[in-house]
Specification:
Blueprint: H1 11-32, E1 48-52, E2 55-59, E3 65-66, E4 68-74, E5 81-87, E6 104-111, E7 123-129, H2 140-143, E8 150-156, E9 168-173, E10 175-181, E11 187-194, E12 202-208, E13 221-224, E14 237-244, E15 247-254, E16 262-268, E17 276-277, E18 295-304, E19 310-317, E20 332-341, E21 344-347, E22 372-375, E23 386-389, E24 397-398, E25 406-408, E26 422-427, E27 433-441, E28 449-457, E29 460-468, E30 477-486, E31 501-509, E32 517-523, E33 527-533, E34 543-549, E35 567-573, E36 583-592
Antiparallel strand pairs: 1-2, 2-4, 3-23, 4-5, 6-7, 7-8, 8-9, 10-11, 11-12, 12-13, 14-15, 15-16, 16-17, 18-19, 19-20, 20-21, 22-36, 23-26, 24-25, 25-36, 26-35, 27-32, 27-36, 28-29, 28-35, 29-30, 30-31, 32-33, 33-34
This protein binds 2-acetamido-2-deoxy-beta-D-glucopyranose (10 copies).
């Protein structure tokens, strides 16, 4: 196919054709992508939802990614736009050496309603952050530091400002902190805590706090043990307290993060109970039938819409091959209607959550949700959908060093190192996707390497890069494909840091020295296919050299904590040594495909 640049006078005709095409493609893509759920495709776990007038906001967990806690905005509950991040300064999110799947866990996004009368709003986000180095523990109590991070909240007066306060820390030891403002002005912190690190009996704990300091005002009290048998798998967590029609409700998640994950609700006369169990619990539990196409549902939050109707959000996964071995997109955010019967909420009319969602809304004409096709022509800032791994110690990219390119400066760290490698990630947001970049890279030494990555976490990732060959060929460089999969687990909850991955590498010769390399990843429900082309021409001849089973980028059967999902990314590394070779990327194309 030929491309032609048209002068402005001829442009309008083209433009209308192009926009018609775009709209058509969007509707097709949307349809093919499975209706409206998940409303936040790609890993977006632990959703919390908020409405102010007719604006809705959702935030989700980001673990060891920086910046932390995306703020998504919507007017219709189905189409969401990323408007910023609550934690975007290192002082708010010092993730240095944080292990995979620790980091920023989110539980709450709320306005302080008491403040609206005085004509301004404060929005609060309550969350937990683990910055402990791990595993560096000697006894069992410390072993739980990874699960028991320090909780805090941040606040802003303008949720669109992308400017939130520094953290105000609580005293509690636990996770999934929830703030509740009672009608009399008391503020409660409610969280998931544990009895000890051996039995691991979780419970919902609570105390009153001084909001301005985060300091405790009352002793911590165990307010609920959950509805499941008393063992370490019960895992009551993700508490939310609501005051609705004069009754207090406690909504929690239970059963752990796998197919047993569910939502249950109880009600009582105070924010601390005592609780009356809903006879219809669990009110959300897709795992009751493992044939359901959406699984692991739970960690829900509810909101009353501007029209008086209620809605809920929860996390869920979409297993791709009939069992749980291919869920590489991880835990996504789903929406469902909430109705009330006898003073109890009913989720999704009592039915399992599916990808279908029957909502009235304007047809979607904005392709940005589905496709991301960008040249790096802006010299201002990266798109907010890009992430770093952990908090960068210093800037490692530039949009102005070579105009028209995103330049990545290498550091010594590589994907898989528990540091902040020179790597930029973007969530994979559909199971079938095409990812392509064009890169200029001339390695200086045999250790210099830059390319693309399919990245789940330190223990699960695969790269295709250009690497120096030490002068073995006239090109001075070659293609490397590296896959890292999790090695043996030692202990039920341990993720080893030494010999933690089994790494395989393959090399392919390159013919050229200075020519751009195009790198492409084709994703499917069960695989990732890597290809490259030695050309900066618009027509490209790709060689597809490697197919990876997507189960190697999914929850491993060996167990452990795997709370995120796969991202696609670019990186530049000196493989243990500093590197002077920059990697220049001219575009990033990430588009859903129907294959
Ligand atoms: C962010 O907010 C703080 C105070 O709330 C203010 O001092 C600061 O100037 C703001 N920063 C930006 C970039 O707007
Ligand atoms: C929770 O269980 C503990 C024993 O493990 C019991 O002492 C306590 O009373 C229970 N608390 C509630 C609120 O049910
Ligand atoms: C729950 O189990 C723990 C540990 O086995 C035990 O100490 C506790 O008494 C049990 N609580 C109840 C209510 O059975
Ligand atoms: C609150 O109470 C009113 C009046 O009894 C009732 O119509 C409404 O459905 C209740 N709302 C909820 C959420 O229970
Ligand atoms: C799940 O699907 C299998 C195979 O289609 C079927 O045999 C089984 O009865 C189904 N289970 C339920 C609970 O519907
Ligand atoms: C899942 O299904 C695939 C394909 O049928 C199979 O190869 C794999 O072993 C299954 N995995 C599990 C954990 O059952
Ligand atoms: C590392 O793991 C591999 C695969 O499990 C094993 O063969 C090898 O012996 C291990 N090496 C060390 C030093 O433990
Ligand atoms: C294309 O490749 C040539 C070398 O063959 C190089 O000089 C030029 O800068 C490249 N253009 C781009 C946009 O990368
Ligand atoms: C680009 O295409 C032209 C014409 O098709 C060809 O002559 C040239 O060698 C190509 N350059 C590269 C770097 O592939
Ligand atoms: C495409 O690339 C392959 C190997 O990289 C090469 O053998 C083939 O000649 C190329 N085809 C064209 C049309 O350039």
């Amino acid at each position: 196919m030929m491309l032609k640049i048209y002068p402005p006078s001829e442009y309008p005709v083209m433009k209308s054709l192009v926009s018609w095409l775009l709209v058509t493609l969007c509707i097709l893509a949307k349809h093919a992508l499975g209706n409206s759920n998940p409303i936040l495709p790609g890993w977006n776990p632990d959703p919390t939802i908020l409405r102010v007038d007719d604006d809705y906001f959702i935030s989700t967990s980001t673990f060891e990614y920086f910046p932390g806690h995306p703020i998504y905005h919507s007017k219709n509950l189905v189409d969401w736009t990323l408007v910023g991040h609550a934690l975007n300064r290192p002082s708010q999110l010092p993730l240095y050496g944080t292990p995979s799947d620790a980091g920023a866990l989110l539980n709450l996004l709320r306005p302080d309603l008491g403040c609206i009368q005085s004509n301004w709003k404060n929005y609060y986000i309550a969350e937990d952050m683990s910055i402990v180095l791990w595993p560096c523990y000697a006894d069992v109590l410390q072993a739980e530091l990874r699960l028991f991070p320090r909780s805090f909240y941040v606040t802003t007066r303008d949720i669109f400002s992308n400017n939130w306060s520094d953290p105000v820390y609580f005293d509690a030891l636990g996770y999934d902190a929830d703030l509740f403002w009672d009608v009399n002005g008391d503020v409660y912190n409610t969280w998931s805590g544990i009895n000890n690190a051996v039995d691991k009996i979780y419970g919902i704990w609570q105390n009153k706090i001084d909001l301005s300091t985060g300091n405790s005002l009352t002793e911590a009290k165990l307010i609920f043990n959950g509805t499941l048998p008393n063992d370490s798998a019960a895992r009551p967590e993700g508490p939310h307290i609501y005051h609705i029609n004069g009754t207090y409700y406690l909504l929690i998640a239970e059963g752990g993060t796998d197919v047993h994950h569910r939502a249950t609700i109880q009600r009582g006369p105070s924010p601390s109970g005592p609780w009356e169990n809903n006879p219809d619990n669990p009110i959300l539990f897709n795992g009751a039938d493992l044939n359901n196409s959406v699984q692991n549902t739970g960690h829900a939050d509810i909101v009353k819409g501007a029209d008086g109707r209620w809605w809920g959000v929860s996390l869920g996964v979409r297993p791709q091959n009939g069992n749980m071995s291919h869920i590489q997109l991880g835990r996504e955010t789903f929406l469902f209607p909430v109705t009330w019967e006898n003073g109890w909420p009913v989720f999704n009319n009592g039915k399992p959550i599916t990808e279908e969602l029957d909502v009235h809304r304007a047809p979607q004409t904005d392709c940005s949700k589905a496709s991301f096709v960008r040249p790096f022509t802006s010299t201002h800032s990266l798109d907010p959908t890009f992430y770093f791994l952990r908090t960068p110690y210093k800037p490692f990219y530039s949009l102005s060093a070579r105009p028209g390119f995103l330049r990545l400066f290498a550091n010594s760290y590589a994907p898989g190192d528990r540091d902040s490698p020179a790597m930029i990630l973007r969530k994979q947001s559909s199971y079938s996707e095409r990812f392509e970049v064009q890169m200029d890279f001339t390695p200086g030494t045999a250790l210099n390497e830059a390319g693309v990555t399919v990245f789940y976490g330190d223990l699960l990732h695969s790269e295709m890069g250009v690497m120096g060959d030490g002068g073995a060929t006239s090109a001075g460089r070659r293609i490397i494909v590296r896959t890292a999969v999790q090695a043996e687990q030692v202990g039920p909850w341990a993720l080893t840091t030494t010999n933690a991955t089994i790494i395989t590498t393959e090399y392919f010769p390159l013919q050229t020295k200075g020519v751009s390399i195009k790198l492409k990843v084709l994703t499917s429900p069960t695989s990732y296919i890597f290809g490259y082309s030695e050309s900066n021409n618009s027509s490209s001849n790709f060689s597809f050299i490697k197919k990876i089973d997507a189960s190697t980028l999914s929850l491993p059967t060996a167990g452990g904590f795997f709370f995120k999902g796969t991202s696609l990314g670019i990186y530049n590394t000196g493989n243990g040594k500093p590197s002077l070779a920059p990697a220049d990327f001219s575009y990033w194309h990430q588009t859903p495909s129907v294959t």
